[in-house]
Amino acid sequence: MKIYDDKHIKNIVLLGSAKSGKTTLAETMLFEAGLLNRRGTVEDKNTVSDYHEVEHERGNSVYSTTMHTEWRDYKINIIDTPGLDDFIGEIISSVRVADTVVMLLNSQSGVEIGTELIWNYVDRFQKPSIFAINQLDHPKSNFEMTVDAGKKRFGSAFTIMQYPLNQGDGFDTIIDLLKMTMYKFPASGGKPQKLPIPAEEMEKANAMHNELVEKAAENDEKLMELYFEKGTLDEDELRLGLKEGMMNHQVFPVFCLSAKKNMGSGRMMGFIDNVAPSANESKHELTVDGREIHCDPKQPTTLFVFKTLIEPHLGKLSFFKVLSGELNVGMDLVNQQNRNTEKLNQLFIMDGKNRNPVTKLSAGDIGATLKLKNTKTNDTLYPKDEDFIVQPIVFPEPKIRVAIVAKNKADDEKLGEVLSEIHMEDPTINIEYSRELKQVILSGQGELHLNVTKWRLEHLYHMQVDFIKPRIPYRETIQKAADATYRHKKQSGGSGQYGEVHIRIEPYHEGMAEPKDFSIRDKEEAILPWGGKLVFYNCIVGGVIDARFIPAVMKGVMEKMHEGPLTGSYVRDVRVCLYDGKMHAVDSNDLSFKIAGMMAFKEAFHNADPKIMEPIYDIEVFVPEEIMGEVMTDLQGRRSTITGMDSKDHYQIIKAKVPLSELDRYSTTLRSITQGRASYSGKFSDYALVPGEIQKKLAEEYAKTDV
Ligand SMILES: Nc1nc2c(ncn2[C@@H]2O[C@H](COP(=O)(O)OP(=O)(O)O)[C@@H](O)[C@H]2O)c(=O)[nH]1
Ligand SMILES: [Mg+2]
Question: How far apart are the first and last CA of the chain?
């Protein structure tokens, strides 16, 4: 297998809504370059890219897949991605290692919801981007509508490079505005005939060519001058201007395709070769402490792991990009996150499931290796231990959470292991065993994402599971001060137990004044692991309780705070003053005072107007303006508070605070009330009091279970 250097490697990622034709295009690009003898189809379930069983079953991509093709003197690494934002984790990690984004638009439907959702995510990376209008052979193809929608959505950067002469049934001809040539394809696709543009098309082609020239000139002062002097630009000058524009995210060249009929992909690959940035021309990667990483074979070898797959019968496959230096087989590299040395015994170029062994990979290339013991996605491998950590991929927060239980109790332990393996493959699947809720909480990006996870558990790991409603991590606190006294006394047989405490409890809030009614001897502030505080004052005077017993009293209080009296939830934000008590010269001990502390706290808590608090999330809903009303109405039914509005492009962003209990399956509801046109993200904000009638219901429910 030929090894390409950093100047001859182009890394592209195929993006676009589901069914736009990404997987078909990837197959065509491999076939067109002669790397495949036979072209597979999505329908026949035999494409290089969609090789996983779940993809065959669903009929579309679930994983991103790396492949490569060779066109003229360049190697083009292609990453095909899923088109649904449930799999956004796969999309983001692929975009991260790509130098150019190729965004497909389906000419039947123009700019789709899926296109929007994905673009919203990837636009922030500001990577050079190409658009490909696909399916021009389809009877419902509408190039003009697609271009209008593209211009409207992506602005003046949307730069037409070609147009179809005869879209729809019988499509076989493209007019190229850069080369001012007509390409006519044979019925089976492949290599086109190059013909002069027919006279009747000349006026239109010239006008569009001039637009292209102006767009290219705009990006470079020298080109602009040249353009004014000559009134035009030649092909090389055009390429230069377009490249400059692509690098600045000011030009998105738009190409014409029929991936299915293999028409147009060769020309687009040629453009990628000649104009899209090579690996060494891309923006420098950075380490977490801001050091630049140059895509230069002479620098120390730096690998960034962007994807992990666990393949049955094969084990762990780690996909990486060589960010700098050269990678030779057998090299020892240090994982910068955990300082373990990893030996890279095997190197592969991956084409779907096919592993092509190589002995060397250069800076800029993408490869894979097997059986790294201590390395996962987002890790950096580097020759020596130097805290040289590449900035990680930031995966989005979960949008949906469920509790997962194994149908067969015997599977419980295995379930944990399997889920952590799934998390390693897909960092957007989060698993957490909540001791508080006594549930395993699985969270992900959407209903489909979780269902695919379920499918994997059932089919690949042979485990039957149920998703159930997750409990809510409520908290309990108090609203007013209350006093309590408790005497713990036991005299049976030998040594007895004795401890008496008098306490006052009060609601605690940050910055409140010190207690005035007592003389403070000591103060301890515990930051609670579940949020909030316990502030404990020792106000004992005259030594009525020995100093050595005081910590036991606080421990007793703390123990009770683990299981609040109302719902069994954690208690937070309480201040306790221990101001009086009694001890016994012989019978007092730690245990007695702990019990006294616990019982006094429990009693005082009941008299202190106890309240339940619930977690509140800050959410942002992205929604097109025209359907904002539906989303707002629905949010009002969820006890939400709208905290702000913003807009980005033609999207409105609704910001709101919503109780977690009202967000159960929200992503699914949001999708259904907006036909998939809105998306949301959310993260924990703080705790707030539950309204009275809901509190009553919760406490009653708990009382029933707490027998
Ligand atoms: N007519 C036509 N159909 C296409 C074209 N490209 C893809 N398709 C079909 O569109 C469907 C989705 O294609 P696929 O490659 O799986 O799309 P992806 O979801 O973007 O990967 C399949 O049935 C393809 O055969 C094309 O250029 N023309
Ligand atoms: Mg696909």
Answer: 70
